[in-house]
Design goal:
Length: 1859
Amino acid sequence: MITTKSGKKTGKSRNLSSWKRGMISLKGVSQNNLKDFDIDLPLGKLIVVTGPSGSGKSSLAFQTLYAEGQRRYIETFSPYTRQFFDRMDKPNVKDVHGIPPSIAIEQGNNVRTTRSTVGTLTGINDYLKILFPHVADPYCSRCEEIIVQDSPDTVLEFVNNNLLEKSILVCFRVPVPEGMKSDEIFRFLSSQGYLRIAVGDKIYRTDEPDKLCNEIESSSVIVIQDRIKISKGKKNRSRVYEAIESAFTIGKGKILIIEQNFSNEWSFSKGLHCQKCDLTIKEPTPGLFSFNNPIGACPECRGFGRTLGIDLIRALPDQELSIREGVVKPFQGERGSECQEDLIACAKIKGIDIDSPFSKLTKSEKEWILFGEKGDPEANWEIGLWYGVQGFFSWLERKAYKMHVRVFLSRYRSYTICPSCRGTRLKSDALNFRILKLNLSEIWQLPVSELLKIWGEEPGDQFAHKGKLDRTAEIMWEEVHSRLKYLNRVGLGYLTLDRAARSLSGGEMQRVHLTTCLGASLVNTLFVLDEPSIGLHPRDTDQLISVMRDLRDAGNTVLVVEHEESVIRASDQLVDIGPGRGEEGGQLVFQGSAETSHRTAKSLTLEYLSGAKEIQAPKKRRKILKSKSLKIRGAKENNLKDLDVDIPLKVFVCVTGVSGSGKSTLVHDVLYRNLMRMRGEVTEEPPGKVKSISGHKEINEVILVDQSPLSRNPRSTPVVYVGAFEFIRKLFAEIPKAKEAGHMPGFFSFNSGVGRCGRCWGNGYEKVEMQFLSDIFVKCAECEGKRYTPQVLDFKLEGKSIHEILELTVDSAISFFGLMNDKKAQKVVIFLNYLTEVGLGYLRLGQPLNTLSGGESQRIKLVGHLLKKKKKKNKDEKGDLLLFDEPTTGLHFDDINILLKVFQKLVDNGHSVLVIEHNSDVIKCADHIIDLGPEGGDEGGQIVAHGSPNEICENKASYTGHFLGEKIIKSKNKRSKRKKINNKISNEISIRGARENNLKDLNLNIPHEKFTVITGLSGSGKSTLAFDVLFAEGQRRFLDSMSAYARQFVQQMERPDVDQVDGLPPTVAIEQRVSRGGGKSTVSTVTEIYHFLRLLYSKVGTQFCTKCDIPVEKKSISSISTLVHSELKKGKATLLAPIVRGRKGFHTDTAERALRQGISHLYVNGSLVETDGFQKLERYQEHHIDAVIAQLDKNSSSNEVSKSIDEALKFGKGTAKLLKPSGQSMVLSSEMSCPNCGEAYEELDPRLFSYNSPHGWCSDCRGYGYIATIKPDYDKHDSIISAELDEERRITKSKQVEKEVCSTCNGARINEIARNVRIGGKSINYLCSLSVIKAIEEINKMNFDGVDRVIARDIVKEIHQRMTFLDEVGLGYLGLDRSATTLSGGESQRIRLASQLGSNLRGVLYVLDEPTIGLHPRDNDKLLETLLKLRDLGNSLVVVEHDDATISRSDHLIDLGPGAGKEGGEVVYEGALGFTKKRPTKRIQSATVRSITEKITHPINGSRRKLPKKDSKDWISIKGASANNLNDLEVNIPIGRLTVLTGVSGSGKSSLMRGVLKPAFDSKLNKNNKKNTNEKWKSIKGTENFAAVYEVDQSPIGKTSRSTPATYVKVFDEIRKLFSMVPESRVRGYEPGHFSFNTAGGRCEECGGNGQIKLEMNFLPTTWVQCEECKGDRYNTATLEIFLNGKNIADVMNMSVSDACEFFKAHPKINTTLELLRDTGLGYLSLGQPSTTLSGGEAQRIKLVAEIRKGQGRTRNAIMKGKTGKNANLYLIEEPTIGLHQSDVLNLIGVLHALVEEGHTVVVIEHNLSVMAEADFMIDMGPEAGPRGGKIIAKGSPEIIAKSKKSETAKFLKETLKF
């Protein structure tokens, strides 16, 4: 059945493809109370979900739609990242299609850190920190004047304007070592190349030291760069400019211009240098303007802005007192009396009025009292000056070793403003820069509305003096401006950017989050909002609607749970859930337009919207008695403006006003807290400032009914909360049978006593901790969810057991007990009637309170207060004052109607009701209104109007009056106009001004839901565009839109250097740089299948006895007692109950729960600790916690032992432990014991099946499955874990480890207990021994019953889904226990892809990095079909690729070039593949278009080399090759030829090359090698023809930034030699080592030659910043002064390989190697690029060059020595075309041919058809992958292979050979 827009149901079958038509399609929605309905929700619309409280709105919106959308997207993140996000339950829904990634914008505020502010939450701070370095004006910190930066141009202009026709000296200063004599200084300067210096008013030559008579006493010497007479000529101007520029360079940015007669001198600075104060300020960087970065954070408070210290304001609690009256409280006792006298005496001398209240004193007078005179406080005291309150406390701090002093100081200690940064959070360096004459801290402190006024509408409005701003500055300005406007639009203009996020209300937090999402500019996202209108005045609601529409119009779907009428009417579609509440709700009663004329009897919402029902204002209002009122005078808290207000009593009063006007401050801070203090009660926060409150004597009690949660555990229920359960239990206790048995009422309690179920402790369910999934709750297996023992349930009251009564609804229970003629039953009815009065008659009596909605919880709380209040006997009797803060939160129109009746009843009973409210229906029903305003923040805090609703309506200054008037006079049929939907949503990603790395200000449009390929030459900027711009920005925006809690754990991505990116959906990256894991990683672990298998076996597996092979079963307590008694005879023991097993977390809740249950001590990680005062544990470490039940010994009685064991087993859920004094423990189990031999087993845990943990691994092989010759060296390591990790590392790295299958576990890896846990007779190790396809069949056979079915449902889905996707990408043949280290590159890549495809999302941008790497053309076709399927689901794909087949299947092609590195970064082709028609002007530039359209004829050289005769010795012959899947192969490879190994992915190519050929050659060529007993070949011939074998794989070439391409290929050694031969180097005595950045001498010692410095600070992430000394050049100044052909060593290291080829053309040793790098497609790399930043393909080609040069060197040396024998080398190269463009492939082919021409043999594994077509000989392997491969299908020349009918390669190769 489906529901039409009119609300009618039709029996037509559901069209399951509706999601393809732009719908989110849900089938069988059954979450919580939802009644298995189907619904289609349109994408790109504003949808409002409404209905009565408890009807199921949140179940649909949050627990179904949001949970599924967010869960699917978060699953695409790494396992490490996922652990920091809330684990979302899979909703109870049959099917969900077409759902985009989802973001929830909820009301709650979980932020606890003061680091999070409005500025950080909205991202404004991130943009300000980038804007400041671009546009801020630098100010001198001393003179406060703007600093002007100089340049050669400005200095030249000054000289020409002021010194024309005068002779000047262009100079700079050079520092000289301390203590150096004049003659030494002269020699030092001369050696540095300086000729003339100025000393005093004379000029000296450095080679004539004798002419200087006196010693030079200055720490620096003025060096003369040039002497010039200034004239107007061009040559003169050029000379002056060159001299100035050189002086700036050598003088580190500072120069001097001196008239030749030394009469005048002027200094200039390129840096931020104040000439007046001779002070240089720090250069601005983004990090300097962030308190979350060590560069900018104040080091004293670490960016918090506060430190723990003496709060001086606490010392002045009542600032209305004067100095004489004792305003300084600590001076009033005996200890401070002398200080009081000093203060009075000094104040009189200072002229300060000692009788004036402190609050009336001037700011400077207040500071004088607090801080005293300038200077040392103690010195001031000695000479009779005032030392300040601060000085008094400083003196006391020195005596804090005394206990009474510490106690005294503690009264005044708190978090106070940091004395170093004065609360700005930043270093003082950051405050030297200003925008709009305000530093960053001052900007943060302005209210948003004020900041908007001075910000201006355009950047030019405020920054005209800066000239034209750069594009980055304009974008940052626009981003800040738009977010400020959004904050203002949603009614938060009163907030400041430095307002702590944790101080925001739930409503404020939600609207801040909303503006963050708007600012993120995401598209194709589902935003789910929870009543965003809460806390908003009607004036601001229209702005909120406008903002939500903006979010929709950006290309998103906005789903809002809401009851506000204006929001409902503004929706594009209304979804009404009902018709009732709780169990009576959960149906889809209406779906369609909110303005429909259709009415349904089921829809309460439509009845109110149509006017059929309405909330009536009272016909007559109560009189206001001035004598009966609370009088508040002089309220000054927060923004209240010395407010005087009267609050009438015994009436219904409403406090209202625009958001931020001061309502909560008035009611909570001023009224409530002060009244509580007057009554002698303590509040958590101090009361608000107020002069006086009178009239409170007319009040009995003050009750605050706030929105805090009722309960966090399921024990409290409605019937317990209202007090009715006590009488129900008494009724049961009076049943005759119960009386006979002697049962008291406590017997029928589920919270205590013996009547409750002992297994679940009366909860009715048990929590199952799922670890990799959300924890689930299942019905208790013992009581089946009934909470009680069977004995209790035998007793019936009027035919119903106590469980059946708890299952009744309130309404049903009233009927049930109403028929009983018993006073207790009537009491029950009276109590329950209160629940029906507030509209909660649908709740079940036993429903846990923590499952109730917000509206339900608040009304139950109200019931709790109603129960205490009785009707007053006379009007003069005191009533209570009840305060409510927005009680309509979460309430439907009908619920509000019910609530108002309760309020009126309370007032009628003589009480006073005061509500803070914005809802017009509530306001119009009030007797008296107090309207605050007129605006929010500083512009609020005043009384705008007060009086009756009609009086407020007449007040034109009142916004409330305006909207209230509309509400009162509104006709029933009035309809508000709906805004027309903007359907013009862009269907493309628009990139403007991309400049990241080498991109040249790119402008691009990438279509949505298309397959886009980005290609181009290697190094042209493809990955930069795809990953550094698109992926980084897309994921950054999604994370920015998530909760602040989640964001603080996930590494934030920096914004890429791009002006604008619009239309960007959430992104998922599938990169090629995937770790294959360590030696223990398998296919099942890297895909996370094994994680879920472990979980499955631990939760529903059956343990078999390891000795008897029979299932273990329950053991009686008596038999356990017998065992314990026998152990106690040996000595005393401690009885423990395990409550936490290897779980991460703080576990404070565990301790609290244990304490409540009477556990005094816990055994935590092997140590005994007290439960009371339990300290939280390390969150991300595994912990073991046992409850200490009893201390037993041989004297313990049998009864005591049995009772203790019973308690321990209950606590441990069937498992206990007996801890012996030796530290050993014995497991005691009532659930897990062998019935035959009595062996006990612990409860199953996922860790038991882990071969990475001692808890699970086989003790003999430690989880490897084989006995390795390498063992952990425990002596060399500090801990066992570090030794084991080192062992795994060494085993993984080692290529010659002999592997002998472990005889204990037979390769299963896990211990005997784990191997004997079975499901359906199958163990976990059996399942893992199967292939993916076979494992799927076994999983499908598994059947589960009862509770096991509930537990297994989601786990099996996860396992099945992951296996199915492995099969879909062609990996069904892989064994689950296959070692990850044996996987081919193609297999590893597809495993990653399979794990990502399982998310089943729509609207996502998938960014893939060369997914065809390692794939055979046949497998490539399969992969492309998978990717196109992903696109057809409604996703966008951007693929970085060089593969012709992929490019030809694309919908859109972007070709970058025309060159690589600096010569790339431009778009040379963009569009579809119509090459002959599109963009002809760019065709000549596009190497991609050329390579596709201009096919190459193979072989390139015209003919192939002839193969040797079969029976000649010119063959490498291998027999019996059997590595991995090789099937006893005989392989022959021609010597001196180019051989290509090919075949489908996983067919055995790498096994042949790396597993057989390389080790076989090594065993023959290396005579020192010991005989390998585990050889994977029988014999090998032909090795005698070779001098060496070189393997070139894709492993990294360096692990630190010190390794670079130049160092790896050894050209850096030659470059350093050249620099050392420069004449200047010889003069200075510089050897080649001086030019190394790895050794002391020439390198920059500040950064140790790294060019970067690591900054670390507690609470902040580690940051690497550019070294300020060398500016990233790695070398010291002296080294950089040596130039080779105009370039210093840093310039050379920054050169690209291509540029360096030209630069070193005259140096063959260097040039030859560099040309090889260039010819292998690496011309774009810089010589000094850190190796850690290289891709696998780049590293491999650098290795190839290094090995070629090594081989050439060895051959050359042999020839020079006259050796004419074997000089040839064997080169084994694995997929060298990875990451190469087709044009680079041709260059690589040339390199390979050149090697062969030199006499070497080259064997290449390759799938690139061009390389195959160039082979002299091919070996094609197959026919399939895995066990079905490992055979040679065809061999011979490419032409022979192309004719093979068995070969999968043949048809693809045939096409290539056509040309």
